[in-house]
Amino acid sequence: MKRSTPIIVFVFCLALVSSVVWAAGQSSKSAKTAKTAKSAAASTPGVALAGTLSQITGVAISPLLGVSAVGAYTWFRAPAEQRASLPWYTKPAFWLTALLVVGACACKDSLGAALPPGLKKPFDVAETLENKLSGMVAVGAFVPFTLDSVVKTLGGGGAATAGSPLAASGLAMIQVGAIDFSWAGAILMFPLAAAIFVVVWITSHAINVLILLSPWGAVDAALKSFRLAVLSLLTITASINPVVGALLSAVIIVVAWLCAGWAFRLTIYGTLFCWDFFTVRRLRFRPAANDNWVFAGGKLGQAPARTYGRLHRNDDGGLVFNYRPWLVLKARRAEVPATGLAVGRGAFYSTIVVRRDDRETTLFLLPPRYRGHEADLAHACNIRDVIDVGLRRAWAWLKETLGFGRRQAAPAAGG
After folding, report:
1. Exposure winner among 59, 152, 252, 414, fewest CB in 10 A?
2. d(CA 388, CA 101)
3. How far, in Å, CA of 257 to CA of 89, rounded?
4. pTM as predicted
5. Of residues 358 and 138, which shows the higher confidence score?
6. Is 4 exposed, middle or buried (0-12, 13-18, 19+ CB in 10 A)?
7. Contact between 159 and 43 (Cβ < 8 Å)
């Protein structure tokens, strides 16, 4: 079943987009002149579905940027007398503020390569938290407005009167007082649209978490550039041809589904990282005597990287990692090596490593709450060694190389 799931999802998305393309093609054939076809295409069900798919996918890639761009575009396209009745995200007070936040993040990323990791990391945490909040707001408050337009189009109620940068059919201009969902359309379409949004958003949000974990500004800029390039390509494609934009959206959805498990685990890690950072949890935290929550490092049996679970010490002193896939499925366990273990002190987060043949392999990643408590965790897990890792090790090596390290006292002469 696990191997066939990607194939099933791909076939489903292909069937969904094929129906959209077919409907749009049938609508275009019914137009008699080029001018009539252009105006008719903006309100036909097929093109409306294609534009909605592209719009939801684009906003899921970058919620704050997507919602603010749709709002600004809709506000400028709407007649002056209709602007007062536009939805909340089209108000200048919202999209101007949102675009300023997006611009501040862009400035942070452009200067990131020159900033020390210690100065840039708090801003990365803040941006990760912003992406989480904007994603929740978008799926709960933005997607229903978008779906209302296409449901009314399918029901013959007419399309919205303005357009959006991701859909030339003007799906973003919906009056708050005019929401009139068809029950059948709402029940069938909203769960599917919400699922598409969440899958794409989780995969896109993984980029923020990777930036949070990366100590190199150049890598951060490359990840951000890649996401912006995908969003720009989708925006331009959907603006030129909504049907082609829907096809590109389907490709993005399939890729996001295939990466969903990895991105979900990374999102959980990023959430706990932000929580520990902003609440300064390490000041109120002490490792438990047993069953400490940790993340798998990717080299532990069949447990995927960054799987969240409990590190349990048996009566004989051995360690076992207990976890549940997707946090709720059937419990599983992975054996932990009995020798060569060490707790590593990091600059931003600590680890548990295993040392073999002069090589260190990361077995577990520890949430930031464990910083400063590495010795206590080592005692709880019956691990003897506590070492420096990552930037801490590099800094210790640099101080020793430059002669600033703590000098060891010379042994006393025997007599």
Report:
1. 414
2. 36
3. 28
4. 0.69
5. 138
6. exposed
7. yes
